[in-house]
Amino acid sequence: MKHKPESHQPDRPDGERPILTTRQGHPVRDNQALRSVGERGPATLENYQFIEKITHFDRERIPERVVHARGTGAHGYFEAYGKIGNEPAAKYTRARVLNETGVQTPVFVRFSTVIGGKDSPETARDPRGFAVKLKTVDGNWDLVGNNLKIFFIRDAIKFPDMIHAFKPDPVTNRQEPWRFYDFVSNSPEALHMVTWVKSPWGIPANYREMEGAGVNTYKLVNDQGVAHLVKFHWQPKQGVRNLTAAQAAEIQAHDVGHATKDLYEAIERGDYPEWEFCVQIMSDDDHPELDFDPLDDTKRWPEDRFPLLPVGRMVLNRNPDNVFAETEQSAFGTGVLVDGIDFSDDKMLQGRTLSYSDTQRYRVGPNYLQLPINAPQQAAQARTNQRDGQMAYHVDDGGANKHINYEPSSLGGLQESPPPAREYRQWVEGHVGRYQTSRTQDDYRQAGERYRTFEDWERDELVKNLGDDLRQCPEPIALRMVWHFWHCDEEYGRRVAEAAGIDLAKARALPPLPGKPAPNAEREVPTYTDGKQEAAAQEAAPVK
């Protein structure tokens, strides 16, 4: 018999529940947001609560990856078109990898599932990791993303909670639907991703017929120091194909590694998969005219307003010689950027930038970048003055004088690179605090739009999958999920209620979530003076 929590538990008054604390025993007053400079500003280094939480999470498993454990990889190359759409790429970025035509930049790509362990089936309903390491002449560039272009949460401080809710129950050791929907029902920003994942898009047919995306918002910077916000996308030349739950079950009955087999055999027979690399671009500002924040990775930029612009192509043409040495020891990080590509203040990106590389230092070791699969190409050989550490085998000779392993020095050794002609500098101003985005209308709107744009068979599959899940959840969680779906789209909510055996009228009668704005509340558009936002009431208010 399947375990369910006691149905009264979600309704217990807050006063009867223990207080969440840090590992030092400090009460946690806000577990929803990083400390940042204003609502849209960069995260601060003194995010101790987040750093303690995420670094502990990075170390929860050894040696298998905590997430993305089940994966496969392939070698290939990237070629830039030299243009972004119909304009020279140099208009937007000084990154040579995106400007120089006729250059084949070596790449290694690792595809993966997210939640399951190393031997879990590749038919799982799960986002797929799509991590690309480009070994450019200016050093490595890692573009670490997923297949679905968005994510469940928009603030990195929630990542350990999300993964814990989606991973097996620590008591039953099973993935329990009620745990997933308990988290989601209290996180409306996840509705958009849930609508994708529970549709056939949640089970790609294989890795070759699958989209990829950087998910986070980055910046392109040109040689004048001008920045634009950018989203990165991989569009498969093979087309996109997904599976229904029944098709996936049929495959899983005789093969738990079908996608790995498909990729390996395609490359071996010379049927090299290819993707077109595209970007979406918008100006580097707040965009108050939008109902979502461009830095919010739970949202897609509408392609009718921000079209996909071709930039280059990627071809995979060689399988690894050794799965462990290459695929399993390959290590990616969102902070691995080249000049001309920069960080935005996307709070998931800022948190991932610490977490990903910290995970690799723990999982593979402090010298993981010395491994051939991770090391930059010879043209960009690493010279760091960093020394020793576990499993060090490369000696960084420090240039002309081997005695000098520090900088600056007048006796030789390494020196700083000349700065660009025009440096990119970002104006940052605001009260340091914990902020959640005030633009939440599209938490529901984009999920509803996605439901309406699915084909009939995709909507049918989505509703069936959600109904099957919600029947296994306690009534308060199922009612709240129907309430959410109804606010996304009335037909969406009604059909899920019918499939799950839920009283729609009872669900609709629920009040909004405590502390969350009503789904259809109008957003007040901020005003601007001399390029700076007036101090918002949220900034002036006491920190929670």
* Percentage of residues in strands: 15-25%
Helix content bin: 25-40%
Number of strands: 16
User: Which fold name corresponds to the CATH topology of the domain at 71-180 and 201-380?
Assistant: Catalase HpII,  Chain A, domain 1
Most strands sheet: 10 strands, antiparallel
Radius of gyration: 24 Å
Helix/strand class:
alpha+beta
GO biological process, one term: hydrogen peroxide catabolic process
Protein name: Catalase
Keywords: Heme, Hydrogen peroxide, Iron, Metal-binding, Oxidoreductase, Peroxidase
Function: Decomposes hydrogen peroxide into water and oxygen; serves to protect cells from the toxic effects of hydrogen peroxide.
What does this structure look like?
GO terms for molecular function: catalase activity; heme binding; metal ion binding. Its EC number is 1.11.1.6. The chain has 544 residues and is an alpha+beta fold. The radius of gyration is 24 Å and the shape is globular. Among the domains are: 290 residues, Catalase core domain (Catalase HpII,  Chain A, domain 1, Beta Barrel); 69 residues, no CATH class. It contains 15 helices and 16 strands. α11 packs across α13. The longest helix is centred in the middle third of the chain and has 17 residues.
SSE arrangement:
Layout: E1 35-37, H1 48-58, E2 71-80, E3 83-84, E4 87-88, H2 96-99, E5 105-113, E6 128-136, E7 139-146, H3 159-166, H4 177-185, H5 191-197, E8 212-213, E9 218-221, E10 227-236, H6 245-252, H7 258-268, E11 274-283, E12 309-318, H8 323-328, E13 341-343, H9 347-363, E14 432-434, H10 442-453, H11 456-470, H12 475-488, H13 490-500, H14 504-508, E15 528-529, E16 532-533, H15 537-540
Helix pairs in contact: 1-9, 3-4, 4-12, 5-10, 10-12, 11-13, 12-13
